[in-house]
TrEMBL record:
SMART domains: FAS1. It comes from Hymenobacter psychrophilus. It holds the Pfam family Fasciclin. Residues 70-202 form the FAS1 domain. It comes from the Bacteria. InterPro entries: Adhesion/Biosynth-related (IPR050904), FAS1_dom_sf (IPR036378), FAS1_domain (IPR000782). The lineage of its organism: Bacteria, Pseudomonadati, Bacteroidota, Cytophagia, Cytophagales. SUPFAM superfamilies: FAS1 domain (SSF82153). Keywords: Signal. GO terms for cellular component: extracellular space. Residues 1-29 form the signal peptide. This is Uncaracterized surface protein containing fasciclin (FAS1) repeats. Gene3D superfamilies: FAS1 domain (2.30.180.10).
Amino acid sequence: MKMTPFNFPLRTLATVFVASSLAFGSASCSNTADTAATDTTDMATTDTGAMTTDPAMAGTDGTAMDDTSGKNLAENAMAVPQMSTLATALKASGLADKATSGGPYTVFAPTNEAFEALPAGALDDLLKPENKEKLASILTYHVVPGSVMAADLTDGQEVTTVDGKKLKVSISGGTVMINGATVVKADVKSSNGVTHVINQVLMPQ
């Protein structure tokens, strides 16, 4: 299964994803039962194909996000200018520290463009101190316990987030989607998990 090329600008979200204090503190580190596909044969044989690294994903030192396993989730997010919105959100939600330890976690990380696509004023509103809990709830909706690689995902599979909600996986023609958001770069490894970059912000029902 070949993933689509990674291409995105990110504004302030380098820290937003790695879950609320309660969610991360109580989540299991494996999530094997929740994230396992119903057909284990498909999980074992799914091929993600060759991954490409877009220049836009280069770190602040000009290097690409290929050799990232020595850094934690927050460090990898903050190393990419296009994910600055994620970093800002993580800080505003109080989850920045959670992204540096614990885990492993799987993060479906929206790009800066994904946040820019929210309704006018929505992001600014979420970043206000009085909306801290709401922001944390949205961010934890992007986090799944355990390290779930692209090859572990199958069409129709449901994975459970750290706060107990469900995400639906769709795979068609080599494109992987999570609740309708397209994975534009997969399997960015960290010391405490893995990140899959997506082109939309996932909103819990």
